[in-house]
Amino acid sequence: MALPSLPSQPAGVAWPTEAWPTGELPPTMAKPPLAKLLADAFLEPSSEALGETHALVIVQGGKLILERYADGYGPEASYPSWSMAKSMTQALAGMLVLDGKLDIHAPADVPEWSAADDPRGKLTLDLLLRMSSGLAFIEDYSPDNPSDVIAMLFGEGEKDVAHHAADKPLAHEPGSFWSYSSGTTNIVSRCLSRAIDKYGPDFEAFMRERLFGPLGMTSATPKFDAAGTFIGSSYCFCSARDFARFGLLYLRDGVWDGKRLLPEGWVDYARTPTPRQEGLEDLPYGAHWWMEIAGPGSFSANGYEGQFTIVVPDLDLVLVRHGKSEAMKDNVRAWLKAVVGCFR
Q1: Whole-angstrom distance between the N-terminal and C-terminal Cα of the chain?
Q2: Up-side HSE of residue 197: CA atoms within 13 Å toward CB?
Q3: How much helix, strand and coil, in percent to the nearest 5, is found in the chain?
Q4: Fewer Cβ atoms within 10 Å of its own Cβ: the N or the C terminal residue of the chain?
């Protein structure tokens, strides 16, 4: 199936590097259904079906056309990325590919796998970005269940998240089994640091020079572990408007204000489906981006407790939602699809 084309910035619409140009909701939209959806989401203190919705930003045609915040939140507030940071990590990898400093199809530079007889030594960044490495890792956020991600972020692995993940054995033949893993992303993140020999503040300076600065993401605050690795699985705090800037970069095929920031084809790589074993009930997955949350052709950065940056190419639309709704994630996803459906 061909991927839907990615729209260019409309002529005469300024890039939101300094401030978002604003527009109106399309007059042909069914506004009453949208109003009902917004009312349902922003109930105080919370919605029984959707939990807490803290922020909603919708951009269409490069313009900010809808913005809503719960009491106590607003445009200047900082929101957690949780796993939306994974998609930022994918963007940073693309920038190093553009620089010629990274080959995603070569064996990944992971010291823990350097022994000649280590089967993990053949793992590529492509397999890691597609969550198909075969490494053992339990992604479970319940403290009552065995969980590698909790141990990595909050327990014995928190000082060196990449080592904690890279030390895991293979549980499956590489490329044969899809398994979502925050540990995988932190291995990728350390590979990026190793490719340019920058860690901690130096890597943050790289992030600001190449990603945050060009897009005007002034609120972006990444978090690092004690080893200097960007915790790309989970931690980059931003305003909702800045997450929308990130989404717009992908909607515009990695080009910003006339300059290519991501390699040609990198966004298509992110939204090309990864082969997975049968029986999985979750959304399709690409390369550190989820797919089809708002219908065919849409792709998204999804985070724990209901953080979403959704890109909808056929509508030239970006939607950002923040909240606290993990137990209601199926309801939230249905709500997001319904909101986007109001624009069809």
Answers
A1: 21
A2: 0
A3: 35, 15, 50
A4: N
For the cut 80, the answer to whether the pLDDT of residue 86 exceeds it is yes
Residue from 140, 191, 196 nearest 161 by CA: 191
* Whole-number Å distance between alpha carbons of 224 and 204: 9
**Nearest partner of 94 among 247, 267, 233, 245, judged by Cα:** 267
| Separation between Cα atoms, residue 4 and residue 71, nearest integer Å | 37
Which residue is listed with tokens 């204000």?
257
Contact 158, 234 (CB under 8 A): no
The whole-model pTM stands at 0.96
The SS3 of residue 256 is strand
| Residue type (1 letter), 330 | D
Q: What is the pLDDT of residues 268-296, one digit of tens each?
A: 999 999 999 998 888 999 999 999 999 99
Q: Is the pLDDT of residue 87 over 70?
A: yes
Amino acid letter, 179: S
- Which residues, in sequence order, are CB contacts of 339 under 8 Å at separation 6+? 34, 37, 56, 58, 319
Read off the pLDDT of residues 222-234 as tens digits, 9 standing for 90 and up: 999 999 999 999 9
